[in-house]
Amino acid sequence: MKTPVVLITGASQGIGEAIAKVFAEEVRGVRLALVARNETKLQAVARACGKVASGGAAAVAVFGCDVSDEAAVATLHAAVTKRFGTVDVLINNAGAFAMAPFLESSVADFDRMVAVNLRSAFLVTRAFVPPMVKRKSGDVFFMSSIAGLEAYPLSAAYCAAKFGVTGLAKVLRA
Questions:
Q1: In 3D, which of 115, 67, 71, 110 has the Cα closest to residue 92?
Q2: b/e string for 137-165 if b means 16 or more Cβ within 10 A?
């Protein structure tokens, strides 16, 4: 059986880091592509994955990338493809959260929440899914938040972006 390539965005901390460690420990031969803006934290996660990879991960590589930037995602796609080939499992986990009352939220704050929490998932999925469709195999996950279903106080931009991720996942299932 082919060893899977798993790409995880937002892998430098939190849920993304935990997902990476589980794959490293549990999936024999997995090749992990860890993606986030903070390469220093990504390196630490990669080292941790190497330590827990008791028969699991075959390779762990870090890719610094702002996944809300279209050109950066194109560069990421080229780098991951060169290193590992096609991706088998895509986990869209990158996200950001900033609290502010609606009337105090700037357009720039709103745009950043939408870019990080929604646009990034669109861009990364659009880049990495075509080979999955062609071979009729692959898995795509969208990490979201309960805020996509029920709003949090002081977080209008975040909730709007998370509702969008929920909607994007529904479109891909159709």
A1: 67
A2: ebebebbbbebbeeeeeebbbbbbbbbbb
The amino acid at residue 38 is N
Known active-site residue 152: no
HEC letters along 120-143: HHHHHHHHHCHHHHHHCCCEEEEC
Give the pLDDT of residue 97: 82
Which of 23, 63, 142, 158 is catalytic? The answer is 158
Q: Where are the alpha helices (DSSP H) in 85-119?
A: 107-114
Block residue for tokens 């994007």: 168
pLDDT in tens, 89-103: 999 999 988 788 878
DSSP 28: T
Helix and strand counts by DSSP (H, E) for the chain: 7, 5
On whether the CB atoms of residues 35 and 76 are closer than 8 A, the answer is: yes
Where does residue 103 rank: exposed (0-12), middle (13-18), buried (19+ CB within 10 A)?
A: exposed
Is 155:99 a contact under the CB 8 Å cutoff? yes
For 60, the enclosing helix (H) or strand (E) is: strand 59-64
